[in-house]
Amino acid sequence: MKIPNKNSLSFHVLLAISGTIALLLALMLLLRLFTRHGSEFEIPSFIGKNAQELTQSGKVEGFVFEISDYQFEKDAVPGNVLKQDPAPGEKVKKGRKVYLTVAADEPPTIKMPELHDMSLRQAQIILENQGLILENVIEKPSPYENAVLNVLYKGHNISTGTEIKMGEKITLVIGKNIGDLPDEETETENATE
Length: 193
What we know:
Blueprint: H1 9-34, E1 40-42, H2 51-56, E2 59-60, E3 63-71, E4 81-85, E5 91-93, E6 97-103, E7 109-111, H3 120-130, E8 133-141, E9 148-153, E10 156-157, E11 163-165, E12 169-176, H4 184-192
Parallel strand pairs: 3-6, 8-12
Antiparallel strand pairs: 1-5, 2-3, 4-6, 7-11, 9-10, 9-12
């Protein structure tokens, strides 16, 4: 095989190709060293552990911790980890930040949503989404079938926008078609029979 002349086009093309291949190989090697490819570990579960101890200790098992959110759960121990990201069992590198959702010691306050004139079903969905509990439904004669007429908290009217703790119990007064409810005369007739 004839060796190309240093001034020929084929020599320069071969030189460019071999230089590109050498550069790519060097970059791949550096990238593998820099990203510590193949040195991934399965992240352990930190759920149920005290978040303050994890964050104050700096690194635990090679991971850095940061509290990203507080969430109230009725049966959870305040200050303990409820969730973590990345999740337990995922493959990650040492030194990775682990974001923690921590149990709050008391429920957050929310503003009472507007429920008047909504259907009972819509009101139930809104209450659930806000973290409130529908304790009781009282039917009251009304031409507006199944519409929320009034909202009660601890037996008293509660206005839209009033601050209330999440998890509180709410009573809804809904309309019941007048024709479907027995009137006083029907009730007394049934009682005398």
